[in-house]
């Protein structure tokens, strides 16, 4: 019984720690927009800071853009880089805004992410290193990709 308890506690600690990692794999890279943690905390809401700077994830269906159907551009909340057009947004049924392609592939960086025992690809902003979400290969044509983004990591301009 004690072993089961220790395994359960270890799993929960690991899962919670993975949800908001403090060791960002992009941290060692040089970005055009670079700020201290204190500067990011002053600029961003607590949830935006956790998601973009500590690789957290907002709850499904909690963000302001998952059901946004207006025409416009989605940009990085940290540095303002234009990332996605509403023309490529689609209903994925996941509770997060999803796009089948970025405005320009150079505005995003893809990295392997094995948290929670899953093999995923995380997506970060190439200008500031903000964690945006993940990309999957189950999206619609023409790309077959689903860029599943956190609403809190984006700004929207009509």
Q: What are the defining features of this structure?
A:
single chain, 158 residues, alpha+beta, Metal Binding Protein, Guanine Nucleotide Exchange Factor, Chain A, 6-stranded antiparallel β-sheet, 3-stranded antiparallel β-sheet, 9 strands, globular, disordered N terminus
Structural write-up:
There is one protein chain. The protein is of the alpha+beta class and 158 residues long. It has one domain (2-157): Beta Complex (Metal Binding Protein, Guanine Nucleotide Exchange Factor, Chain A), CATH 2.170.150.20. Helix content is 22%, strand content 24%. The chain contains 3 helices and 9 strands. It has helices at 2-19, 37-43, 46-54; strands spanning 73-76, 82-85, 89-90, 98-99, 108-113, 120-125, 131-136, 146-149, 154-157. The strands form 2 sheets. A 6-stranded antiparallel sheet has the order 3-4-8-7-6-5. The longest helix has 18 residues, at 2-19. The radius of gyration is 16 Å and the shape is globular. The protein starts with a helix and ends with a strand. The model is unreliable at 1-25 (pLDDT under 50).
How is the secondary structure organized here?
Elements: H1 2-19, H2 37-43, H3 46-54, E1 73-76, E2 82-85, E3 89-90, E4 98-99, E5 108-113, E6 120-125, E7 131-136, E8 146-149, E9 154-157
Average of per-residue pLDDT values: 86
Range of helix content: 10-25%
How many structural domains in the coordinates? 1
Spatial strand sequence of the major β-sheet: 3-4-8-7-6-5
Number of helices: 3
Strand content: 15-25%
Q: Per CATH, what is the topology?
A: Metal Binding Protein, Guanine Nucleotide Exchange Factor, Chain A
